[in-house]
């Protein structure tokens, strides 16, 4: 069965600190996609990144970076020099690709990040 | 704004009433998804369409729920005889199927929040 675990329920940091959000996944598929979404208080899920299981290269986008390690089934997300506007719930998600591409995502329970000024 | 739009944003209804939500996806997207999110949880997949065809339904989608996408553009999600357990945020998302193994990036709307009294 597929599963996504975000063990950190809540994280509180002070502005300008770096913070890493953990994501561990389980799947028997060899081809799959991993995602991160941000959900600010307004409620809309904002797409951050999608990573194919064949691409283990780490990615950096501005203050955001992602570390994908198939050996540990992890896809961690780091925010460098956090800002108050980063305060939100962050979701990690997994989608299968066998049998044809699908965006039927399995979400984790989310990590609430609070960045204090 | 060319994102995914949902209507209404909020709906309060009494138990036993029927409600209908509408979703307008990003115009060129051929896949449309419905998810449900309850408080403190990640979104859960309900169903999805490719053009006008409904390709998959989750076990979460009881027979009181029906979704349509009649012309392959907008979609409606109807809940009949609502129950208090139906209270949740109903999220619509869309993507462009690029190939057999690439479902494209998934973009969410702001959601329709349902409260059943």
What does this structure look like?
The complex is a heterodimer of chains A (117) and B (117). Chain A is mainly beta. Chain A has strands spanning 3-5, 10-14, 19-21, 24-26, 32-39, 46-52, 59-61, 64-69, 74-79, 88-96, 105-107, 111-116. Chain A starts with a strand and ends with a strand. Chain B has strands spanning 5-7, 10-13, 19-24, 31-37, 44-50, 53-57, 65-68, 75-79, 88-95, 107-108, 112-116. Chain B starts with a strand and ends with a strand. By secondary structure, chain B is an all-beta fold. Helices cover 0% and strands 48% of the residues of chain B.
Helix/strand class of chain A:
mainly beta
Number of helices of chain A: 0
**Which stretches of chain B of 5+ consecutive residues score pLDDT under 50?**
none
Instruction: Indicate the mean pLDDT of chain A.
Output: 91
Characterize the main sheet of chain A. Answer: 6 strands, mixed
Strand content of chain A: over 45%
Number of DSSP strands of chain B?
A: 11
> Which sheet architecture does the biggest sheet of chain B show?
7 strands, mixed
